[in-house]
Amino acid sequence: MNQTLRTRISRAVLLGAAFAVTTACAGGGSADEDVAYVARDVESLYAEAQRRLDRGNTALAAALFDEVERQHPYSPWARRAQLMSAFSYYIARDYNKAIQNSQRFLSIHPGNKDAPYAYYLIALSYYEQISDVNRDQSITEQAQTALREVNRRFPQTEYAADARLKLDLVSDHLAGKEMEIGRHYQRSGQWLAAALRFRNVVETFETTSHTPEALYRLTESSLALGLREEGVKYAAVLGANYPGNEWYEKAYELVGDHASDVTPG
Question: Is residue 248 part of a domain?
């Protein structure tokens, strides 16, 4: 997340609060610092948590915000502290706690003015954990679900605008995973299984950057299965939608090479 957007978001969290959030220092802080129970008035405790966050001691700040709620559960500060704790955990890259605290905030305050941010923070916490395409993509799917929820619930907000941009990247990532699996099946000679993966890219992720290659791979798989008409169809779709694309040129050559030695299916 870029610094400008992060600053706008952190300010939105504290709309109407006494202290503004500064996130220029996003370091983790020491998790070993003592947060032993000491009864303090709510303003002082919240101010100390804010001071730690401003200095980049995000893990300690989160613990102190948690302490605000624990010591003063019925104070208006407790509601703010819940979300600031989630935000601090997010900056500290403790994404599971960020998600848990955001979900807890929403369960207690579903109609709060900061609910859009809580949903967005959940989505960001999943999004930041997306791994490369060679690994399990369950987190990617959770990020996609959470981002869609932000866009569905709050379409006119800046959170939704950013969620839509991230959804495009998530779709491209998931399509990349399907392509990786499809190519693996091709290398193993499992042409039908490969074709199913490539077809999913074309049908489910048609706006991603992987679609031209998926159409080429479908051409390739169809020809390998002896389905020349199918192969020609996919090559034609590729040419109609991506004229001049390198994958179309390869498909055109491939279809020509199989003009006489592949029996139509």
Answer: no
Q: What count of Cα atoms within 13 Å lies in the side-chain half-sphere of residue 215? A: 29
The CA-atom distances, in angstroms, between 89 and each of 65, 122, 126, 199 are 10, 11, 13, 40
In a domain, 47, yes or no: yes
Task: Locate all alpha helices (DSSP H) within 135-227, ordered by sequence.
Answer: 138-153, 158-187, 191-204, 211-224
Q: What is the CATH number of the domain that holds 66?
A: 1.25.40.10
Cα angle value 37/42/43 (rounded, 5°): 125
For residue 55, what are the domain limits?
Answer: 1-129
Model confidence pLDDT, tens digit, residues 145-160: 999 999 999 999 999 9
Q: Compute the half-sphere exposure of residue 83: CA atoms within 13 Å on the CB side of its CA.
A: 29
b (16+ CB within 10 A) / e for 19-43: bebebeeeeebeeeeeeeeeebebe
Within 13 Å of residue 254, how many CA atoms lie on the same side as its CB? Answer: 26
pTM value? Answer: 0.75
Residue in the structure block whose two tokens are 């395409």: 133
Domain assignment present for 195: no
**Per-residue pLDDT tens over the stretch 64-112:** 999 998 888 888 899 999 999 999 999 999 999 999 999 999 999 999 9
Amino acid at 257: D
User: Count of domains in the chain?
Assistant: 1
